[in-house]
Design brief:
The strands form 3 sheets. This protein has a 3-stranded antiparallel β-sheet, with helices on one face. Strands 1-2 form a two-stranded antiparallel sheet. Helix 3 (59-73) packs across helix 7 (122-136) and helix 4 (78-92) runs antiparallel to helix 7. The protein is built from 7 helices and 7 strands; from the N terminus they run E-E-H-H-H-H-E-H-H-E-H-E-E-E. The chain is an alpha+beta fold.
């Protein structure tokens, strides 16, 4: 049983998830790089990130986490559930400083792997949150800054409320921050 504590507004919440013991084996041979032949496709980044978001082995854990968040937080609608999922990833999944300072491993984790480890770098936490928000029913975008070696999530917002001239507000996954900051 995996235990997580996280801050949601003024509340300190705690949840438990029963994750399969064989998760490490399930993802040992999962693809982690983008392969193509011929010219690099224009949408290669979309295809690459979808590889981490559409793995059928992740779905049960993502759905279990959403169901658990619904029980513990009693969100009144999908927007409240999304805010709860954001708070969970921001504060319930630790930032992995050891990996951040030793980026030679350079592999993004699948959502289930991040849940199992209970920690991850910006990319791992962003992919986990993307999987949760997509399953709840939100549109998302992945913001990447190659030179800064950083990644954050964008969540679809009404016209005029997005960041960087897009219709998506940034969600920083590495710590507790407000959507759009």
């Amino acid at each position: 049983m995996h235990q997580y504590k996280f801050q949601a507004g003024e509340e300190q919440l705690s949840i438990s998830l029963d994750l399969p013991a064989n998760l490490t084996a399930q993802f040992a041979s999962a693809p982690r790089s983008f392969t193509y032949s011929g010219s690099l496709p224009k949408d290669w980044k979309t295809t690459y990130f979808q590889m981490f978001l559409r793995n059928s082995a992740d779905l049960p854990q993502v759905e279990r986490l959403i169901a658990t968040l619904k029980q513990v937080g009693s969100p009144r609608d999908d927007e409240a559930l999304a805010k709860l999922a954001i708070a969970f990833v921001q504060s319930g999944i630790a930032y992995d400083y050891q990996t951040a300072y030793n980026l030679t491993s350079g592999k993004i984790l699948y959502p289930s792997e991040t849940l199992q480890r209970g920690k991850g770098v910006c990319a791992d936490k962003t992919i986990l949150l993307a999987a949760l928000l997509l399953r709840i029913g939100f549109s998302v975008a992945v913001f990447t800054w190659e030179r800064a070696n950083h990644m954050a999530l964008g969540i679809k917002v009404p016209q005029g409320f997005g960041n960087f001239g897009f219709g998506y507000a940034m969600v920083e996954t590495t710590g507790l921050t407000t959507i759009g900051q």
